[in-house]
Task: inverse folding
């Protein structure tokens, strides 16, 4: 290598190591966020180049960032409402948020890595699409709080609504109206989706409706709700008198498709969502849904995140009440000819 003038900088180290500047910084600072192989390579490169860190910059890096990193799904309305409330709660405590989204092409792992490289003091994961072993591995390198997830891992705070009670309240509401054929549109593979699906099956069986349990595959999008409505109407099976969806977005897709096909809601079929987003409360929608209280969850999450950053207390599971909000999309079933 030709001799160069001037002091070797972290940019020089990153370029020689073939990494980004942020990855080089994480590796040299001994912070989580890069593999051990990458860390060793960066350290060896820095030594070879004679890199000496700027002490003033090092002192600045050691100062508290007062940043809470947040991952969320870009296509979820409820996540947006949680984030709005997270900002309010964080600002009151003198903290700021750093957001990173997950999409169909950007995994939760990738989103988390970007937050770790930016020195966030605690990670807040909103309904993360990961499994428990991966969550446990993440908690070994960062303080973690989850919102809306039923996954548990050592050292991770879990905050979620009482989905079991929320689902049971929906089934009770529909049964009291006279419904028996109550179908459920699933929300995918996440821990949250598994918990709600299992609660639906348990609630139906507890009311003696074993024969009427019907779970329709889906994912947490409006398109999935539209597809579920089409399958229900074209399957040739007995049409349910009520459909309960994993979230409001699925329920909205159901509602629009049913109405476009001439199905009266709730006259011919009742529809229930979950999350009680602004979408459900629109005058033109007025959908029965279950409220998780985004503000309460956000406030509790920020409190736990700051505690974990400052004191590292034992992890907790905090369960907030779920509340059924009855609106115009549920009503008594229409009498059938065979009854």
Result:
């Amino acid at each position: 290598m030709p001799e160069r003038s001037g002091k070797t900088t972290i940019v020089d180290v990153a370029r020689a190591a073939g990494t980004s500047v942020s990855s080089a910084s994480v590796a040299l600072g001994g912070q989580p966020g890069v593999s051990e192989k990458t860390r060793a390579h960066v350290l060896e490169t820095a030594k070879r180049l004679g890199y000496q860190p700027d002490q003033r910059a090092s002192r600045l890096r050691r100062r508290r960032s007062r940043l809470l990193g947040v991952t969320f799904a870009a296509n979820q309305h409820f996540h947006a409402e949680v984030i709005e409330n997270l900002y309010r709660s964080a600002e009151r405590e003198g903290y700021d948020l750093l957001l990173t989204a997950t999409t169909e092409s950007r995994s939760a792992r990738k989103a988390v890595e970007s937050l770790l490289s930016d020195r966030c003091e605690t990670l807040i994961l909103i309904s993360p699409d990961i499994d428990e072993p991966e969550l446990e591995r993440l908690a070994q390198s960062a303080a973690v709080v989850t919102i809306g997830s039923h996954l548990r891992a050592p050292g991770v705070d879990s905050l979620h609504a009482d989905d079991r009670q929320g689902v049971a309240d929906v089934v009770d509401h529909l049964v009291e109206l006279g419904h028996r054929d109550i179908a459920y549109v699933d929300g995918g593979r996440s821990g949250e989706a598994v918990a709600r699906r299992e609660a639906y099956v348990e609630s139906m069986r507890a009311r003696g409706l074993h024969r009427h349990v019907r779970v329709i595959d889906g994912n947490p999008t409006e398109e999935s709700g539209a597809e579920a409505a089409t399958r229900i109407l074209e399957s040739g099976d007995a049409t349910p008198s009520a459909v309960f969806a994993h979230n409001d977005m699925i329920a909205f897709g159901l509602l629009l498709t049913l109405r476009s096909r001439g199905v009266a809601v709730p006259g011919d079929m009742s529809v229930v969502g979950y999350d009680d987003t602004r979408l459900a409360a629109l005058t033109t929608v007025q959908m029965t849904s279950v409220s998780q209280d985004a503000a309460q969850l956000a406030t509790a999450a920020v409190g736990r995140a700051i505690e974990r950053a400052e004191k590292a207390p034992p992890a907790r599971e905090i369960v907030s009440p779920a509340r059924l909000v009855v609106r115009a999309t549920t009503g008594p079933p229409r009498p059938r000819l065979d009854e």
Remarks:
- Residues 1-5, 58-62 have pLDDT under 50 and may be disordered.
- The radius of gyration is 25 Å.
- Residues 294-310 form the longest helix (17 residues).
- The chain is about 45% helix and 15% strand.
